[in-house]
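DATA SHEET
Item: assembly model
Revision: 1
Owner: S.N.
Input lines:
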Amino acid sequence: MGIEINPTSYLAQGRTLFLLIHWIGNLSFAYIVARRLQPLLRAQRDPRFDRPLARLGNVAKFWFGQWKHPRYRLAGSLHILIFAGFLLLAMRAFTVLIVGVSPNFAMPGLTGRAGELYENATDYAATVVFLCMIFAIVRRVVFKPARYAVPERFGKAHTADAVFLLGLIGFLMAADSLFSGAKAVFLARQGLPDHLATVLSLPWLFKTALASASLSTIGALFFSAYLLHEIVFYFLLCYRPFGIQFHVETSLFNVYFAKLTKGTIKPVRWGIDDANLDHVKSFGVKSFEDFTWKHMLDFYSCADCGRCSDNCPSHAAGRPLSPRFLSLKARDYAFEHYPMFGKAGNGEALVGNLYSEDEIWSCTTCGACEAECPLLVEYIDKIVDLRRGLIDDGNVPQSLQKPLKSLESRGNPYGKMEKKRAEWTAAKDFKEACPVQVLDKKNGADTLYFVDSVTSYDARMQSIARATAKILNRAGVNFGILGSAEKDSGHEARRFGEETLFLALRDHNTEAIQKSEAARIVTADPHAYNALQHDYKDVPPVEHISQTIASALDAGAIQFKPIPANGKVFTYHDPCYLGRHNEIYDAPRHVLDAIPGLRRVEMERSRDRSFCCGGGGLMLFYEPKEDERIGVKRVRMAAEAGANVIVTACPFCLTNIEDAIKVAGLEAEMTAIDLAELAEQQLESDSPASTAEALPELERELIAGR
Amino acid sequence: MEILVCARRVPDTSENEIVLNAEGSDIERDDLVYSINEPDNYAVEEALQVVARTGGTVTVVTVGGEDDEEILRREMAMGATHGVLLTDDCFAGSDGRGIAAILKAFVQRNKFDLILTGVQAEDGGAQVGGMLAAMLDYPFASLVNAIEVMDAGKLKISREIEGGNREISEIDLPCVLSIQTGINEPRYVGMKGIRAVASVPVPTYGAAELGIEPSTVGLAGAMVKRVDYFVPAAGKGAEMLGGSREENIEKLLELVAAKGGLK
């Protein structure tokens, strides 16, 4: 019985060299990471250590499960293959590294049969990753997907760097495979089983090619493959923290520490409650160090995949904002101002240097970027923090100053009188048909209809208020409004960075709502819905009118009459603050589908990929530089889907889309309507609610009993 | 440079519906929202920008009652160094000359290199700046839309003249300038800023401290007295063009040309 010679013992002659490479590689990597962590240690606090189970769930779904990737089918599938390959190869990479200095090393648990199976799997994994790299390089160089393009104002194309990195990984895979192939030939020459049966894998191809090579050639190749593998491995390890591949290291942490709530905005400073905000000298993000450590980690984690900007309505309309470059510019700033050697950080202002004011005001906070990001990078909180910094320094576009001041003095952005807030209830014909009570000490009701500013004051949008009231009335809901005691929900004030103003509006409304003693709130404005749901505390549960209509339909409290067959094709536009931020996608569709005879088509961009109308609230006052209105793009999408009626469920969407229809010159072929308006039009005139159903339950039972 | 900005609190025209009271002697003031007179806000911003370049302080002064302190705080939140309230029962009902006399008394008790006013008050007549300059025997320039500080106690200023043209002048300090809107983009003041200066004391001066003879100011000293308010009757509405887009464009061009709008 001969002594089995482990071919890896051939590596023994390079042991000192390999040991040296290990030391240099590992120490360099540790040093680089320590330097990269430096700004995070100077950053603002951000408590992300709660709810470990939810966070692990995110890791399982978004990191391990690569949940968002298939949204871009080709690039996503490619990434899933590479990611799976990397996961499989991680253990092997460690084993191979250790083998250089300890030839007989085998990973515990991966010996014998298990070890063979694992090696087979990694043979194919390396092959698949290698092929993916070739494919990715061809894709970037030849096919050049549009979303990787770098607009001139953001610098030069990133193709060279991407190809270099892809090439290095491909090279690493090839070196590893050559190492395996040569090893197998060695074993075979000694008459030992080589276990390399992975037909057509890269190691198998090398083994086959080397079958007739001389032992010295194989030895040299074996040694060189190992050495190259070592060098490239450590080079990549230390080079990744200088570019987009840093996400290989950071993604796990980025996903684990990702924000767990939707629709919310981070506080001005974590750990400081609203009552103590007056003691905070400076609000928001002004210099890089004002970001939280997690937001900095986001910058490191951005993989430059371009999906955020590809979905960003502001970017599509040619506004100066590109979420992708919001991250990349900040990352480059961090690299530049926290260098590997020398002094760090100069605390210069970000806006005016790194970002332009227009860039920061251009965001509609629609959340499309966040819905798309595979790494769960956050954008809205950063934008709001940057806006808080601008507001704090008084840098607010003139067009926004008036509405902000009017919110402060009048409680609405239009500067209209408080006492006219309920004037929509006094419209002729409506007043008698559907009297709306203002809740006060004498008049109580179970349900409070929170109207909010645009629906209260805008002559066109008041129609939504009246439709909402009529539906509630018909559904037998005992409701009232706050009237002049209601102020703007402050949703947009908060998202435009005016936190102090928001808090004043919130406190005022909270008190008024509590005084009304209503048990629930209904609103037809998704922005108000989002504010009441996420920004307010200690208020009754809130419902959007689409949910109220859906449940009234299900309970049989209202019924719809058929819609005449007149060639109308409807499509539903998901408002951002109803859909993406609150995941209410089905209730409005359920309402539409309950209308007999209604033909409905989906736009390609719907549900969580819905395309913002252009932005609500204060965004209506902002005058952005853009090539084409966002709303016009949206109207075209509806036309492409074959629709001629756009149904939405938000007064701001309706404003923008109706305007956009005119701008696009499509008045003859396209109309827009609010879901509440449409539902009210279709109410069965003598639905049961207006007769027996409207009676209190006890009385109905009495009638039934007779 | 020590700069004084004279400001005034007025009903905010963009946030109010101005209606006459039953007697027709004044506007209905119960539901009015007040704010700083907009041109005065530009004057404060300009003063802040000048001291940012040259150093110095900005003092904002107003003549009025305790309600008017609100605008002083807003301007202090903007960055003004001091706010001063000139208040006395005998100041009430002053005409433009009376206000100018009160301001003059305050200016003479201090040392200012430059005095700015807004081009006009939204409820006033663009009189105070000129009168104040005359009373102080200072040079005066109105409708100023750019200020450049030169050496040796001089300013180079630009004034807006008819048709949007500009006239560039040199003016000696100390002087009074009335500031045109659009000279700058005033910074935003939020509630946070106002809260931050809420406890900063605002000194007040009355007639006695300023050495003003009560009978020369206020209603008693006013030579111009308001006798009536009048709202013009609504005229004919806009002319609506009812044709097709092309026809409307034709017609519109014709109308604009007929009124001399096209050359």
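QC remark: The beta strands of chain A are 437-438, 447-449, 479-481, 520-523, 542-544, 569-572, 599-601, 645-648, 671-674.
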